[in-house]
Amino acid sequence: MSDQLQTAMQLLLEPTGLGDHDLTRTINQAMGPKIDYADLYFQHSRRESWSLDEGTVKSGSYSIDQGVGIRAVSGEKTGFAYSDEIILPALTSAADTAKAIARSGNNENVIKIQPQTQALTRLYEPFNPSVSMRDEDKVALLQEIEQTARAIDSRITQVMVSLAGLHDVVMVVRSDGLLAADVRPLVRMNVHVIVEHNGRLEQGSGGGGGRYDYGYFTENNRAHGYAEEAVRQALVSLESREAPAGEMVVVLGPGWPGILLHEAIGHGLEGDFNRKGTSAFSGRIGEKVASELCTVVDDGTIENRRGSLSIDDEGTPGQDTVLIENGILTGYMQDNLNARLMGMAPTGNGRRESYAHLPMPRMTNTYMHAGNHDPGEIIASVDKGLYAVNFGGGQVDITSGKFVFSASEAYMIEKGRVTYPVKGATLIGNGPEVLTRVSMVGNDMALDSGVGVCGKEGQSVPVGVGQPTMRIDRLTVGGVSV
Amino acid sequence: MARSNQIWRPDVQSDIEQSLIGVASSALELAKQQGTNWADVSISQEQGRSVTVRNREVETIEHNRDKNIGVTVYFGHRSGSASSTDFSSEAIRSCINSACNIARFTEEDPFNGLADIEYLATEFPDLDLNRPWPIPVDRMIEVATNCETVAMDSDSRITNTEGATVSSHNGISMLANSHGFFGLSRGSRHSIGCSMIAGAGENMHRDYWYDCKRHADDLIPSDEIGLEAARRTVQRLGARKVKTGEYPVIYDSGVSSSLISHLISAISGSSLYRKASFLLDHKGQRIFPHGTNIYEQPRLPRALGSAVFDNEGVATQPNRIVCDGVLESYLLNSYSARKLGMQTTGNAGGVHNLTLDSTYADDSGASGTLEQMISDMGRGIVVSELIGFGVNTVTGDYSRGAFGFWVENGEIQYPVQEFTIAGNLKEMFKAMAAVGSDVDQRKNIRAGSILIENLTVAGE
């Protein structure tokens, strides 16, 4: 039995006296002649957060959420029920409710559960972040970061700092007999500052995290780096002029601007939309959808990254999936249901917000491989354009392919030089088109600092993005200055 | 049987109400034993079902049953919070302990604490917010199938479907605090929605329509929802780009409430005391044109946003936010009110049925419909969908992606896409030249279509 499975059984089953045989009984209960697939998903999540505002750590919270979700799938039909009580009668009742989808009889082929014995590739340690640092030290850390930020510049009027940790233990029991578990830590820290100068207010933010414990933030003065970054952004904004409006050359910086890939490409390549034929990328595998400089992957196996998964929420090991290779569309991201219906293999992208939500194909860490250009060379190649280095959120309409992402830090490029900062603006484009206009890719591939949250059909999951500096020959910039 | 939706230490309750009161009382008692000065407890329990049909076949049937207890405790003015999905006495004890533990490490903040007693709700009128829908799953499947079939059959340009969903939820929540407040509220929410796809390849579009009501009887019939979903979807076929420039823009009533939601963020207590708002110190100033009125109607019967008390137990009141274009009130909870030296406005947790009046006279010639507004605008853009998050509440800078229609000679000419609209909210509010009477009743923010005189549109 893997360490993760041992931890999960102890936490999820032992307190209520449930054992292996109860899992066997329930998964058999959820199956039937007309059911193709069933699974049980047990989860125990502990989260905490601390926040500092106006110089004092005013509030903190702690929560425990646990339960089990049971799903039965028949063809394209899914029945789903869940319970926040992990006790046998609740399991039995949820299994019956879920399988009612197929009006199915009793299971004749008895499923035997095979506990996962192989150790999973260790992508992260099974930390419980909240106990990795004493509470008084968490408070002291927040105060220290606040003071660091304030000391940088007298124009700072507000500093908000937050610290959050999650200890997520999940266990999957599948109708093919698989019994697997994962212990997923996740930490995040954020610094937000407001500055004022001559009556003008601006803001900036910095932060990061990953599948670590809180030691990550004190290591190499990382948390101080977040404070410096927040202040730097806010001060740059104080100098910003109106952003331009219209089509122009856009150079995206490395790291977090990879949100472009997440919106323009990633969502459109999720298996569910492609099975249903509702994506602008539907039926386009093998076609050229990007310039040959572009290779884009979704990689759930990067150590300690926010989007990484030893196993996904259906028990499939995380993997590195090539989505676009040298400009050619090569693959979709799949969960079990959509992979089966499309005759493809699952790719470790079956994810769910919690036991109370159904899994679906979701991204993990989506990024573009490095190219050959020096970033300075890329900027020097632009006569007039926008250099965007930091972004807020983004969104996409899967069907028409239209996507947006909003720059929060950007500069004008004039005659090959970065000249002055401009205010935030939304960039809009067409997913299947935008990467065909990539004419230069930098050698400076970077992943984001670990702050991404992706929302789809009301479910949020942590994700990562990344990319090298990249030149897009034409993209619409939504500033105010015509 | 008529039953009060909210009760003040009620004499007669159902079993579930009894049990929630029991859980809340014991949590408050435990908090007291831990030496806390004050505590509040909120408990919610919800159940429901959701059925999705796609291509006339059931796609998913989801059964929901959720519960949660959250506690906040105070040692003096230091606070800590904790929550759990487990209502066992052991879990509640551990929840209180976690909250107390956090409160031992947070710092003293003199503005922290429960709502002042004099503002707590003391009467609990029945607003008719709870009407469970006793609909069997098979019937939900029929309704969804009908909705989708009508949509798919209504127009040959419909090429695919994302399905139709029927859902029904109802729940009960209780708020109690150590001032002796016990408030109970029940509510239901039922919806029918449908999403269609028209066209193919590079000219493929999706749109949807839905309705959501407290009472299932008030829902628009499923056929009408299907027809409207299909109509909106095919309307997008052949969308073109827009030439970059400055144009008047109408936000149709499906998206106009977003502008008011930006106002809400900017005048919320937490933005103001942090000095993180483009409307800082604007109380008493004109921020909209003459004739603009925005107010709350928190106790409208059957309305989705209605509530008798806010998240702190404070009695809701019909706040006047904007009167003849002048900002008259901020939106505050107890904490932000104390910070600003003001009184709570009963907005802990948000607004309740915020309403923007039409600027068209009711019974006169001008009807205030979207058609009327388009005709009055002459040339410009109607926006029917917005995407992205390009709104900065600190500076008011605004830049979002949009879909919509090009208007010339007072009539819609063709659909447009892949453009942004940008400006600064402070100027946009002042340039709000007209508000239609075509209010979208499904929302907590009730606004008709809004015309902004001049925005920068970036396209090709």
The tally of helices of chain A reads 11
What portion of residues of chain B belong to β-strands?
35-45%
Seen as an oligomer or otherwise, the chain set is: heterodimer
Low-confidence stretches of chain B: 1-12
Strand content of chain A: 35-45%
Averaged pLDDT of chain A: 95
Low-confidence region ranges of chain A: none
Structural class of chain B: alpha+beta
Terminal-residue CA separation of chain B: 61 Å
Question: How are strands sequenced across the largest beta sheet of chain B?
Answer: 3-2-1-4-5-6
Tell me about this structure.
The complex is a heterodimer of chains A (482) and B (460). Chain A has 482 residues and is an alpha+beta fold. Chain A is globular and about 75 Å long. In chain A, helix 4 runs parallel beside helix 6. Chain B is of the alpha+beta class and 460 residues long. Chain B has a 6-stranded antiparallel beta sheet with strand order 3-2-1-4-5-6. In chain B, strands 7-12-13-14-17 form a 5-stranded mixed beta barrel. A 5-stranded mixed beta sheet of chain B has the order 10-9-8-11-16, with helices on one face. In chain B, strand 1 and strand 2 form a beta hairpin. The radius of gyration of chain B is 24 Å and the shape is globular. The N and C termini of chain B lie far apart (61 Å). The N terminus of chain B is likely disordered. At the A-B interface, strand 1, strand 2, strand 3, helix 3 and helix 4 of A face strand 2, strand 3, helix 2, strand 6 and strand 13 of B. Strand 2 of chain A pairs parallel with strand 3 of chain B, so a sheet runs across the interface.
